[in-house]
Design a protein that fits this description.
Layout lengths: L24 E6 L8 E5 L2 E7 L5 E5 L13 E2 L5 E2 L6 E2 L5 E3 L16 E2 L1 E4 L2 E5 L21 E10 L3 H8 L5 H4 L10 E10 L2 E9 L16 E8 L3 E8 L4 E12 L2 E11 L5 H32 L14 H12 L11 E7 L1
Length: 358
């Protein structure tokens, strides 16, 4: 009998689906969270501090003063827009250069007093940070569709989950689990055979589901014809999941989920869920949509927590995949290639399968 590693912890010890892609944009906070005080955050287990300079632009530094290593996030922002350490008052600009040491008369030889800085960009209501300190960004953060579109109702949520970023991304883009984790709330009320087509897209991969009935609401139009639903799941490097639904009846939903690795086994993500809802229906629909999303997110967070707990008890992962796992293995492969600094793979990954959804 072949030992699959399911009963022997040492066989899986140390194996985790973790990739540290430093050369990429990660959301660290919403823009309205960053006001007139420093804000502490963590990415890849590294403490960083965000603040706004005198012009209001967001900046990010390593959260460690160059003098005696006190957290800069405990400091203040001075009138010049410099971040002043709360211990001895050293002041740093947005690029990490030390601009003043209070009480020091000789200001020479200041080059060794700098703090590593991270490229920072504010876009679509989020503050995005390049993962490599003092790195030169390539490209810009992904755009979040419809976040400022007046035709759409927008729901924003933030979650910290106990799992790898890979596990959180796979969960967000995984169809088979929905009939079980979300039974009755999302799926699980019937079965149907549909097709799934996987393909590459710029910066990531996409799976299109063909023949899927609408997730909610009427399934036929006023003439009795079936309402056709289109469904796409997408992953964009280094950590953005996106789910889109569109029906022939004019319904449209796009949920974009930026993920940030706080540590190897803790991930923060935001849900930006944009629903095309008539203005006169929004007061009625908002609490319904929010309740459904909150329920689904809480269920996912709990199953991910339980999954991580069991993996840690066995000392690592011991995964077995099937043809239904269209996203997870490819996401991990892309993350690990990017971690090694390899160029994006252009080899075809096109695949079409038939599956049963419940």
């Amino acid at each position: 009998m072949t030992d699959t590693g399911t009963t022997n912890a040492p066989l899986t010890k140390g194996h985790y689906s973790v990739a540290r892609v430093l050369d990429g944009w990660y959301a660290l906070c919403r823009g309205d969270e960053l006001r007139d005080a420093p804000l502490a955050r963590t990415i890849f287990d590294l403490p960083v501090v965000l603040f706004r300079d005198a012009s209001g632009r967001a900046a990010t530094l390593l959260d460690r003063c160059a003098h005696r290593n006190a957290p800069l996030s405990l400091g203040t922002i001075d009138a010049a827009g410099h971040l002043a350490c709360g211990y001895h008052g050293w002041r740093f600009d947005r690029g990490g250069a030390c601009r003043e040491v209070p009480g020091l008369l000789d200001g020479s030889d200041a080059s060794g007093r700098c703090v590593p800085a991270f490229a920072t960009r504010e876009q679509d209501g989020f503050v995005w940070v390049w993962g490599r300190a003092d790195g030169e960004p390539t490209g810009t953060p992904i755009r979040i569709p419809h976040i400022d579109d007046p035709e759409y109702l927008v729901v924003l949520r933030e979650y910290d989950v106990e799992c790898t970023m890979h596990a959180a991304l796979e969960n967000a883009l995984d169809v088979p689990h929905t009939a079980f984790v979300h039974r009755g709330d999302f799926r699980g009320k019937g079965s149907r055979e549909i097709e799934a087509v996987r393909r590459r897209i710029p910066g990531g991969i996409e799976v299109e589901y063909i023949g899927e009935p609408p997730l909610s609401g009427a399934t036929t139009d006023a003439e009795g014809r079936p309402i056709v639903s289109q469904h796409w799941d997408r992953f964009f490097l280094p950590g953005v999941a996106q789910v889109e639904y569109r029906t022939s009846a004019g319904r449209h939903l796009v949920s974009t989920l930026p993920h940030t690795p706080v540590s190897d086994l803790r991930t923060r993500f935001w849900l930006v869920s944009c629903w095309k809802v008539p203005v006169d229906k929004r007061d009625e629909m908002r609490p319904i949509i929010e309740k459904q999303l909150d329920t689904i997110l809480a269920q996912d967070a709990e199953i991910l927590r339980q999954q991580t707990r069991r993996i840690r008890e066995f000392g690592g992962e011991s995964y077995r995949s099937t043809a239904l796992d269209l996203m997870g293995p490819e996401i991990l492969r892309m993350l690990r290639q990017a971690e090694r600094g390899l160029p994006a793979d252009t080899a075809p990954i096109d695949r079409r399968i038939t599956l049963r959804v419940f």
